[in-house]
């Protein structure tokens, strides 16, 4: 491991490479996460990538969010993937989500709602320009509709926190937090071919059993009148309160509120305040004092999930933790960081479920590092935030713009020339 000091020339090269990467992955108004592996527009990837574009091309940054919201459903949902153009390199694609003769334009599920956070970032970066005002005026009602969708479709019981119905919705697909809930019996599935395994080693990807469960959920949702939001919440055999989604939504509500004030939309502020008040209460149920961590909750059993994942620290990003809770989180975080050379691992390295190479079960993800750092700074833990920042600089300097990184060796894993890693190098690690 290096001392965390990198020559300016190395970082300058990363900046150039990052701009080059976004341009290379630009499919015209939207940025794919990586060639071959992910050839469509992904929801939270795009929202993060817009912040990267904003650093050198304001108009293109707004286009990213515009194109994302062009895929918004009438009910307000922003899908996890939008299939703008055909591709044969990803499974499950448009035919699986739709019908063979009439492929779907998108998936029927969503992903963490980063868009309002990103919209505020863009607006603040470019606040003196007329373009930002115009774009924000167009975007605001769509953002509001998407947050309203979360509450009507995913919190009909008014718990204050929303549910995800598929691990893909969390963005942390094979997190150990889903292991127990993903034990429901799978259906008889049509034969299928894992295309991800053509691009990335099986040792770094979810297992076949996990994919069988993913697809069982997909086919069951499709059977419910094509993903009817009124039904899915009640029939899904997987229904979790996810820390990542809820932390991002809580933070996004604050940014949506900020935008509403800027745009003079005072009429919606009380609605957003209600989400924030109820959310704040809802998070209290997710605190596990014994572990000193927040935990996801299985809504079907009512139990907190005992799984120490990096999502446990994201309530710092939301700002919902008390000072005492923050202190306990930081104590845990320090232990994790002391156990591996590069942080933040996506699972506690001292937990038996930790797998340093397998996707969301161990590797470091730069976007999560950014959120955790942002939260730590908010709570005044500048020293540990700096440590994570330095690790992120070291990982990207040594291994490049990879999808995720091995916390034990610092090696790059998964996809190469990955858009959200590039965006983070531009908007955060500059
Ligand atoms: C399914 C695109 C996406 C990310 C997710 C990540 C992975 C897809 C997959 O890639 O998920 O959505 O097929 O593995 O888990 O967070 O948005 O980068």
UniProtKB/TrEMBL annotation:
Domain Mannosylglycerate hydrolase MGH1-like glycoside hydrolase: from-to ranges: 38-421
Molecular function terms from GO: hydrolase activity
Transmembrane intervals: none
Protein name: Mannosylglycerate hydrolase MGH1-like glycoside hydrolase domain-containing protein
Portion held of the full protein: 74 to 503 of 521
